[in-house]
């Protein structure tokens, strides 16, 4: 299976983010945004 094309991307490096336990994780920068943050993609 490939990366989800609809996934949000990292604001720092534009890599696709992975959703893990209510957090969006960048493969390079780690956790970028948490679901409790008011910021929405």
List keywords for this structure.
41 residues, mainly beta, three-stranded antiparallel β-sheet, 0% helix, globular
Topology of helices and strands:
Blueprint: E1 18-20, E2 23-26, E3 30-34
Protein name: HVO_2523 family zinc finger protein
Organism: Halobacterium litoreum
What does it look like?
This is HVO_2523 family zinc finger protein. InterPro entries: HVO_2523-like. This protein has strands at 18-20, 23-26, 30-34. It has 41 residues and is mainly beta. It has a three-stranded antiparallel sheet, with no helix packed on it. The relative contact order is 0.23. The mean pLDDT is 79.
Short synopsis of the structure:
With 41 residues, the chain is mainly β. The chain has strands spanning 18-20, 23-26, 30-34.
Poorly predicted runs: none
Q: What is the radius of gyration?
A: 10 Å
Please identify the structural class as seen in this structure.
mainly beta
SSE ordering: EEE
Largest β-sheet summary: 3 strands, antiparallel
The average pLDDT value, as a whole number, equals 79
Task: Note the overall shape.
Answer: globular
Distance between the termini: 23 Å
Query: What percent strand?
Result: 25-35%
Tally of DSSP helical segments: 0
Residues in helix, %: under 10%
Protein name: HVO_2523 family zinc finger protein
InterPro entries: HVO_2523-like (IPR049701)
